[in-house]
Amino acid sequence: MLLHIHANSLLLKGRRSLIEENSESQREKTTTREKINRDEKISIYSVSIGYSAGRSSIFTYLSYFGVVLGASPFEQSILTSVRNLGSNMFQSVWGWLADLKGRKLVIYIGLGTLMLSTLLAPFASNPLELVLISIFMTTVGFSIIPAWNAFLGDYASERLRATFIGRINSIGTISSIFVILIMGWIMDLSPFPFPHETTDYFLSRSVFFIPFISGAFIFACALFLSFFLVEKYDYHKRPIIKEELRQSWRTLIDRNPPFKRLLPIDMFFKFAMSTAWPIFPFVTLRVADSWTMVAVMWVVFNLPRGIGQNFGGLIADRLNKKIVLIFSRLGYVAVPLGYALGLVTGNIWWLILVNIPGGLAFGAEETSIASYSLDCSTADTKARYFSILLTGEGFSAFLGSLFSGFMMDLWLNVSRIDYSSPDFNIILIIMLMIIASLRLISALLHKFIYKNPLDFELENFHLLESYKS
């Protein structure tokens, strides 16, 4: 027990010394950070809206584009897997760069890459080309994720961090629903058929120029607006030596017991979640009959998602983030069940209705997991700890999506079932039931994480003081 306390004292000394050195300045800055001036608010809200709208314009339709290009379930899982792996495998590099050279530099890199790759996406003529574009888009473009969360974290005190991040992100998410609706409406007005049948796949490819070119323009606007962001983090005045920025993953994880416990649980959860992602596009295109209905489905997801981001942050700050994580991640169980009902009945309204709890869960979960990760870190390791979490999630999601697609393709080949066969629906339904079970188990495992990383530090500090006395 004493050895355990002594081992943790290294973490406590480092974190507490930073807190002591900066306590006075933090008290002075808290009021300023919580009362952001008008110009800062405008730039933050504008970039959040632009990033969310651009992301919605492409990721709402990217998986469907893969299906239309002729991707099999396994090829679709490769597309999903590399997108998840690419979006997370270099997050530690981008997090390190954001801590070393500032948040805005990495935000510029991310938005610029998203703009360019989104512009190239509709020119893909086969699944392989779309995979390569997705790798470029996610490995470099998603560098914005740890930088943006660290940027927002710099504006808020620990007491209001989840509330602030949730409010900013919810504004962007809710604003993006108008982009999704407009895209769906314009796509239906085009002369290209909706790919409800496999025979329409080739004829409907050109319709994807509408959301992708629009998304590239939106990302360009967000990039321009990001130059007006006011960065609170001054990397020139960081209170740690440069060697601290070169610490290995293992060192950062081992010295932080709350984060060390969170990481494997979160990775298994992402594995369970990702097994559904290659399957959902096949279900949607078999049930929907227009792009407008697809747009409505995503709007119904994003609206409660925005609400969940806002109120999830408030609940996380007033109660604790662990409760929000558990209940929000339990909410994901309803989604594959709703997709299965939609497939059985042939009614897209099941897919639409189940997106209400799915959206609420997603919004509350992404706010609470980001703020929980930030609570595990110091002022100068925010981006790195969050990037480690994202990297772990990326590898898990890569394996989960790949495993799901491989199993489906194997099942289809052994049973000699064609995609146009009604029996294909039976395989999809069974897979969705298995996925719902995996999501339930992985969500319940979150009861083992620490209630509050800050409480852990305080408790161990008192134990250490008692041992010394």
Please write out the topology.
Elements: H1 2-34, H2 38-59, H3 62-68, H4 73-89, H5 91-101, H6 103-120, H7 127-141, H8 144-153, H9 161-189, H10 209-226, H11 249-254, H12 257-274, H13 280-287, H14 291-318, H15 321-331, H16 334-345, H17 349-375, H18 382-415, H19 423-444, H20 453-468
Helix pairs in contact: 1-20, 2-9, 2-10, 4-7, 4-18, 5-6, 5-8, 5-18, 6-7, 6-8, 6-10, 8-18, 9-14, 9-17, 12-18, 12-19, 13-16, 14-15, 14-17, 15-17, 15-19, 16-17, 16-19, 17-18, 18-19
Question: In words, what does this structure look like?
Answer:
α4 packs parallel to α7 (127-141), α5 packs antiparallel against α18 and α15 (321-331) packs antiparallel against α19. The longest helix is centred in the last third of the chain and has 34 residues, at 382-415. The chain is built from 20 helices and no strands. It is mostly helical and 469 residues long. The chain has one domain: MFS general substrate transporter like domains (Growth Hormone, Chain: A, Up-down Bundle). Helix content is 77%, strand content 0%.
